[in-house]
Amino acid sequence: MKKQNYIKWDEYFMGIALLSTERSKDPNTSVGACIVSKDNKILSVGYNGMPIGCSDDEFPWDREGSNLDTKYFYVCHAELNAILNYTGTHMNDSKIYTTLFPCNECTKAIIQKGITEVVYMSDKYSETDSVIAAKRMLDAAGVKYRQYTPIGREIKLNL
What we know:
The protein is α/β, with parallel strands linked by helices. Helix content is about 25%, strand content about 20%. It contains four helices and five strands. A five-stranded mixed β-sheet has the order 2-1-3-4-5, sandwiched between helices. Helix 3 links the parallel strand 3 and strand 4 (about 115-120). Helix 3 (about 105-110) packs parallel to helix 4. The radius of gyration is 16 Å and the shape is globular. The two termini are about 30 Å apart. The mean pLDDT is about 95.
């Protein structure tokens, strides 16, 4: 008889996105993303962080101050990192699992790459112009989005 308490695909892929958050150096908001093909193969993962060659120790992580002294002009978001990390030929009809609803800039890339569904954990910025614009674009492009429903199961990893 097969094991009965295995995790379903949504739990597995959101778990990968959650594990990816642990790579982020952002002291306030760690985000992870996992892109999956229509046949449930992981295509790419990403997390929010500085671009390659830009030191995590030399660029700012602050949220307040002048634009050049905060993280916002420098950090690459998890969704965009997952898209840029992909080395295959296409992402058509894929899904992206992300721990935070994507911003308008990441949404443009999601749509352009042919990703057809966004599964997100948190939508804590739902009232911001960025997320409102993102949802407008997803709706216009016919990209589905849905909030992940946690199953309340804890899985401990000993690394």
